[in-house]
C-alpha cells in the first residue's frame, strides 16, 4: 500500500493506519516547531549569499504544480526585464547532492539538453522548456545562492521548492495551497511537511492555480492534432489529474498506466498493457525521461503541453513588481 493511499483513503484500514501514525505526527510537529524556533529566536541566522531570492513551494509532499509555476513566474519576471536563474533540487538524481551549475549555452549555440537520469526529471524539463535560463541543480540551496551570486550577481534566484529549507534567507515566499484538502495532518499520518499554520509566514498564498492545455507535440518536436483516442502514461504525484484532463478534452483513454512520482521510466516492461496502434500521451516531465530510451523510435508519442496560470495575471505581475521594488529599497 502506497503512503498516498493511507493519506487519502476512505476505508476503515486507511483510517486505522492514520490513527496509528498520529503519535508520530505529533512528534514530527514538535520537531518542526523546534526547528522553526531556532531561526525565529535567532539562535541560528539564515544565510544571505544572494539577493533577491524568490521561492515557489508548498506545505505538502508530492506534486502541487511547483515546477510549472516556477516556469510561469520565470517568464513573468523576464517580461518585467529581470534576469532569472532557477534553482531545482534534482530529486532522485546524482546531481541532487550539493549544488552545481548545469551546462549553459555557448555563443550562437543553444543550451544543451540535460539527461534526466543524471540531473533529475524536473531540471531536465525546465531546461527543455526554458533553454536560455541558467539552472543550478542540487538540494544545497545556500550553495546554489552562492553559485548564483558568483556567476549572475544581478539575477533573481528563483527556487523550485525549498520553503522548508530555512538555512537560506528568502526575500519572497510564494506558497501553493489546496484549500480543499481533507487530511491536514503532518507526516506520517498526513501529507503536510509543515502545519497549515505556516501559511501565515508566506508572502503570497495561491489557492486557485489553473493549468491551461496548450496542445500536443509529436515526439517532443512537431505540433500534432489532438487524437480522438489514445493510451496515457505518467509518473507524477497525482496521475488522476492528468488522466481526467485528457478525458475532459474529449480524448478516449484506451489504457492508462501510472507509476510512482519521479519513476525513471527505464523498465523494459514499461509499454506492456498499452494497446498497440494508438498514440501514447505523456506529460512533459515524463517525456524528458522517455526521449532517452532507445526503443521509442517507432512509437507515436504525444507530449501533452500545458501552462500554469496565476489569475488575474496582471495583478500578480504588478504585485511581483512592487515586491521587487520593496526588496531593492530595503
Description of the molecule:
This protein is of the alpha/beta class and 330 residues long. Helices cover 32% and strands 20% of the residues. The protein is built from nine helices and 13 strands. A seven-stranded mixed β-sheet has the order 3-4-2-5-1-6-7, sandwiched between helices. Strands 9-8-13-12-10-11 form a six-stranded mixed β-sheet, sandwiched between helices. The longest helix is centred in the first third of the chain and has 29 residues, at 12-40. The radius of gyration is 20 Å and the shape is globular.
Write the layout of secondary structure elements.
Blueprint: H1 3-8, H2 12-40, E1 53-58, H3 66-79, E2 84-88, E3 100-101, H4 116-119, H5 121-129, E4 135-137, H6 141-151, E5 156-160, E6 172-176, E7 204-206, E8 210-218, E9 222-224, E10 229-234, H7 239-248, E11 252-258, E12 280-283, H8 284-290, E13 301-309, H9 313-329
Parallel strand pairs: 1-5, 1-6, 2-4, 2-5, 6-7, 10-11, 10-12, 12-13
Antiparallel strand pairs: 3-4, 8-9, 8-13
Helix pairs in contact: 5-8
Amino acid at each position: 500500500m502506497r503512503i498516498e493511499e493511507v493519506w487519502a483513503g476512505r476505508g476503515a484500514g486507511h483510517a486505522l493506519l492514520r490513527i496509528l501514525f498520529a503519535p508520530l505526527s505529533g512528534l514530527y510537529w514538535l520537531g518542526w516547531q523546534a526547528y522553526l524556533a531556532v531561526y525565529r529566536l535567532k539562535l541560528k541566522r539564515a544565510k544571505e549569499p544572494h539577493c533577491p531570492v524568490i521561492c515557489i513551494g508548498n506545505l505538502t509532499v508530492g506534486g502541487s504544480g511547483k515546477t510549472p509555476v516556477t516556469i510561469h513566474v520565470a517568464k513573468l519576471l523576464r517580461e518585467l526585464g529581470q534576469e532569472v536563474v532557477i534553482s531545482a533540487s534534482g530529486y532522485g538524481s546524482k546531481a541532487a547532492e550539493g549544488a552545481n551549475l548545469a551546462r549553459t549555452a555557448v555563443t550562437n549555440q543553444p543550451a544543451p539538453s540535460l539527461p534526466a537520469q543524471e540531473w533529475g526529471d524536473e531540471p531536465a524539463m525546465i531546461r527543455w522548456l526554458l533553454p536560455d535560463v541558467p539552472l543550478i541543480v542540487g538540494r544545497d540551496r545556500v550553495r546554489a545562492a552562492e553559485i548564483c551570486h558568483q556567476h549572475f550577481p544581478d539575477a533573481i534566484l528563483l527556487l523550485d521548492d525549498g520553503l522548508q529549507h530555512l538555512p537560506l534567507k528568502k526575500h519572497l515566499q510564494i506558497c501553493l495551497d489546496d484549500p480543499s484538502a481533507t487530511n491536514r495532518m503532518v507526516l506520517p499520518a498526513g501529507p503536510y511537511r509543515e502545519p497549515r499554520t505556516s501559511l501565515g509566514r508566506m508572502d503570497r498564498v495561491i489557492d486557485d492555480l489553473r493549468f491551461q492545455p496548450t496542445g500536443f507535440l509529436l515526439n517532443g518536436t512537431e505540433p500534432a492534432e489532438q487524437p480522438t483516442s489514445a493510451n496515457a502514461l505518467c509518473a507524477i504525484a497525482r496521475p488522476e489529474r492528468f488522466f481526467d484532463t485528457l478525458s475532459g478534452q474529449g480524448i478516449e483513454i484506451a489504457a492508462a498506466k501510472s507509476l510512482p512520482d519521479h519513476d525513471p521510466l527505464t523498465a523494459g516492461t514499461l509499454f506492456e498493457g498499452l494497446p498497440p496502434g494508438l498514440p501514447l500521451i505523456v506529460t512533459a516531465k515524463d517525456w524528458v525521461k522517455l526521449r532517452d530510451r532507445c526503443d521509442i523510435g517507432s512509437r507515436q508519442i504525444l507530449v501533452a503541453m500545458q501552462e500554469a496560470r496565476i489569475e488575474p495575471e496582471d495583478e500578480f505581475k504588478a504585485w511581483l513588481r512592487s515586491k521587487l521594488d520593496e526588496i531593492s529599497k530595503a
